Amino acid sequence: SKLKVQLKLAISRLRMVQQKDTAIAKQQRRQMAHLLEQGKEESARIRVENVIRSDITTELLEILELYCELLLARIGLLEPKECDPGLEEAIKSLIHAAPRTDVKELQQARQLLVEKYGKEFALEAMENSDGKVAERVMNKLKVEPPDPVLVDLYLKEIAKTYGVDWPKRQNKEQRGSDEEEGDDDPSGGHTVKNLEEPLTTEELSKATPPRDLGPKSPLSIAPPSPSTDNLNPRVKLPGPPELKPGGKMSGLKKQTPSTQAQSDPTGLHMDDQGKKGVGGKIPDVDELARRFAALKK
Predict the structure, then answer these.
(1) Which of 53, 83, 112, 269 makes an SS bond possible with 264, Cβ 3.0 to 4.6 Å?
(2) Residue 10, exposed/middle/buried by CB under 10 A (0-12, 13-18, 19+)?
(3) Whole-model pTM?
(4) What is the pLDDT of residues 74-94, one digit of tens each?
């Protein structure tokens, strides 16, 4: 039960330390970018090693946190006196790496593991005589200067993140090479398009004029989208209403020419719309004058 409580405290403490180290590393990266912007490259190269070491330590704490979570999940396998083979790597890695950290809760959990499994087991873990300690943990604990290639990669990434023009020499060389290539090119760096022959009158007469030629209507109607009920929808514009005859007009029968002559001896008859005319047409002025002269006789 003590080990379980201590593992929970260690996990919580490890997460807090990781967040704190990440915030400090972010401030240090901003300082590196300021140094690069001022041209203090040597100072930036020395200080960036601290950033690299801080990142390695943070990665180590993350690995140890995972091992603590593994032991907490399999706390039932820690009851026997003999170490379970599936947990041997995690336990020995914690015993080996805990003294290299500043997390007291993790060191107290390590002490409980040493008391449980004995001094010989702890000695094997500290010396890694049987090679059970995780290789990635051993790599993170190595104390050696970082590779110069890694330093350059860190500086390039910091300059890219904060928008610093670095390395300036490389950028100047690239600009110089681009200018030299532009001098060799007679076109001045611009591509020259091939001139096409003009079209003849026959080809122009056969060409289809574009649809957007001429004045455009201020109104635009989007066609409706097809659906399962109507695959080919069309836009119907509103037109004048169709006039249908009423009941009285449809009931009247058309008069024959003989009945029209009897009812209208003057030759002027009323058409279906109540207007006088011949053959359904309105007579002109000369025709009317002639007919009125015949009536006076």
Answers:
(1) 269
(2) buried
(3) 0.57
(4) 999 998 889 999 999 999 999
